[in-house]
C-alpha cells in the first residue's frame, strides 16, 4: 500500500427500506449507488438483506438462491464493473446445499470480481417482549470464519448486524490488520433506539477503527420495524454521518490517518494480557 493510498477513500453508505420484491430492491440500490458515484464515491456499502426483506422460514428459503444463480449478486457484480467501484453488498440470502440459508456478505472489486465472502456468525435468537420474537437459527446457518479483506486503500473487517454485540470479533479483526470495520444491519427499531449508536461507537473506540454500517429503515413485512440511522463513526468515536430514518445515501471521506492518530493516543490493541478464568 502506498503512502498516497493510505490517505483514504470516499465511501457511499446506503440506507434502504427493502420489501419482498427483489427486482425493486435491486433497482433502489442501483439508484442510490449511482447517486453516490456522482458525488465521487469509490466504495459503496449496502445494508443487511439489501435485496430481500422477507418474513418466515418458508418464504425466505423460497426466495433465496445459490451463489451461482443469485440474481442480486449478478446485478451487483455488473454494477461494480460498469461503475468501476468497490461494492460491499450488505448481505444476500444464499441457499446452501443442505437447505439452510447463509446470510452472506460479498465484497466486490471494481472489476466485479468477488474479493471476499463472509457468513454472519451470530444468530439473532431473541424475545424482545410484546410478541416481538426472532429465531434466525431456524433458517440461517451461522458462519464459522472471521474475514478481513484487502481494499486498495486499507484492510477491512467484516461483520453483520447482531455481530456488533460480540466485541471480541471486532478486536480480532482489528488485530488482523483492519483499519475499517463494517456491520451492515437490519436492526430492530426497539433495540436500535436503545443500543445502536453506543454499540457502533464502542466498537470504533475499542479498536481505533472506522465503523461504517449501512442500515435498513422503516416498516417491512409483518409490520417489522427497523431503526435506520446508517452510521459512519471515526476511530476516536465521533459520529461523522447519521442517516436518520430516511431512505438515501451518505457520502463520507474516510481519512485513514485518523486510525493512526487514535491508536497512537490509546494503543490498547497492543495491551492484551492473558488472565485466568473466574
TrEMBL record:
Pfam families the UniProt entry points to: CN_hydrolase
tRNA processing keyword on record: no
Molecular function in Gene Ontology: hydrolase activity, acting on carbon-nitrogen (but not peptide) bonds, in linear amides
InterPro entries named among the record's database cross-references: C-N_Hydrolase, C-N_Hydrolase_sf, Nit1/2_C-N_Hydrolase, UPF0012_CS
Membrane-spanning ranges: none
PANTHER family, sorted: DEAMINATED GLUTATHIONE AMIDASE, NITRILASE-RELATED
Residue intervals of the CN hydrolase domain: 9-256
Protein name: Predicted amidohydrolase
Family stated for the protein in its record: Belongs to the carbon-nitrogen hydrolase superfamily. NIT1/NIT2 family.
Native organism: Insolitispirillum peregrinum
Record's keyword terms, sorted: Hydrolase
